[in-house]
Amino acid sequence: MAEQVGDMVTHIATAATEQSSATEQVNHNVEAIARLVRESAVGAQQSAKACQDLSGLALDLQKMVGNFKLENAGAYAAGDWRADSPPAKARAASAR
User: Fold this and answer.
1) Phi then psi for 21, rounded to 5 degrees?
2) Any domain includes 95
């Protein structure tokens, strides 16, 4: 009987040690996940800021491009903007 009690105490102590080790691993993994979440949040904030900056630059570019006047805007709208198109060849010839 005493031997059985001793075996049970040994089993309980072994199980407690295993549970403690498993708990430490879980805590370590939870901390790693929390760190990754924080890093992802920082990355998302940086991406959002970059998108805002890019949007502002696109608006600035649109304003700058809007300052240009085209001689033959209708040809450009019709798709005759290629260098080998008749309107482009005529412009090139008249510029000589």
Assistant:
1) -65, -45
2) no
What total of structural domains would you count in the chain?
1
20-32: burial string, b at 16+ Cβ within 10 Å, e else? eeeeeeeeeeeee
Asked, for residue 87, whether it belongs to a domain, the answer is: no
Whether residue 73 is contained in a domain is answered as no
26-36 pLDDT per residue, tens: 999 999 999 99
> In this structure, is residue 42 part of a structural domain?
yes
46 or 88, higher pLDDT: 46
Instruction: Kindly indicate the confidence band of residue 21, based on its pLDDT and cuts at 50, 70 and 90.
Output: very high
Answer yes or no: is pLDDT of 77 > 80.
no
- The amino acid occupying position 64 is M
